[in-house]
Amino acid sequence: MIGFLKGRLALKQPPSLMVDVNGVGYELEAPMSTFYGLPTVGEPVALYTHLVVREDAHVLFGFGTESERRLFRGLLKVSGVGPKIALGILSGASVADFLRIVEAEDIAMLTRIPGIGRKTAERVIIEMRDSVQKFAAPTLREGSPSSPTAASPQGEAFAALVALGYKPPEVTRLLKAADEPGLSTTEIIRRALKAAAKP
């Protein structure tokens, strides 16, 4: 099992990224909580990883902190929650936010994340209520916010939100709420996800 990767960030296109480790490019999928802390392309990066083996693919997931990875692994143990929904939860809430959601039994907040219906939200809260405190932990690296890339930040944000499960008309509405000149892709996504979380 690959536990972590340390190398140079070769590509970041939410929710996918690539890390160059001594000339070998590792493709990963990561939650937006990790993307917010990534350095610029070409800079050193270190990520915790989790490998999911399916019949049709081996998918490597990357996380900026050990607590994010532990929460991801905890979510995968919940009946009806797969990697895509777990990534969606981590993209829509930080580990600290998730702890508060579970403690407050805020089912409405969880159901705002794409792919999570009321039954799944209830199951997540019930099954994780006793284990949430173990998900807070120190980080592997201190990251700096990413800077805009050459491609259109709005276009990249649109693709990332669709990949996270939001429908295109909903993405268009969310991006209008986050529209401000000069914002980086990750900042646009962060603002859009905040807008999606509002009732």
Compact summary:
By secondary structure, the protein is an alpha+beta fold.
What keyword list fits this structure?
single chain; 199 residues; alpha+beta; OB fold (Dihydrolipoamide Acetyltransferase, E2P); DNA polymerase, domain 1; Helicase, Ruva Protein, domain 3; five-stranded antiparallel beta sheet; 9 helices; 19% strand; globular
What's the SSE blueprint?
Layout: E1 4-13, E2 16-21, E3 24-29, H1 32-35, E4 44-53, E5 58-63, H2 66-76, H3 83-92, H4 95-104, H5 107-111, H6 118-128, H7 153-163, H8 168-177, H9 185-197
Antiparallel strand pairs: 1-2, 1-4, 2-3, 4-5
Structure description:
The chain is α+β, with helices and mostly antiparallel strands and 199 residues long. It is built from nine helices and five strands. It folds into three domains: 4-63, OB fold (Dihydrolipoamide Acetyltransferase, E2P); 66-133, 5' to 3' exonuclease, C-terminal subdomain (DNA polymerase, domain 1); 153-197, Ubiquitin-associated (UBA) domain (Helicase, Ruva Protein, domain 3), CATH 1.10.8. Strands 3-2-1-4-5 form a five-stranded antiparallel beta sheet. α7 packs across α9 (185-197). The radius of gyration is 16 Å and the shape is globular. It starts with a strand and ends with a helix. 34% of the residues are buried. The model is unreliable at 136-150 (pLDDT under 50).
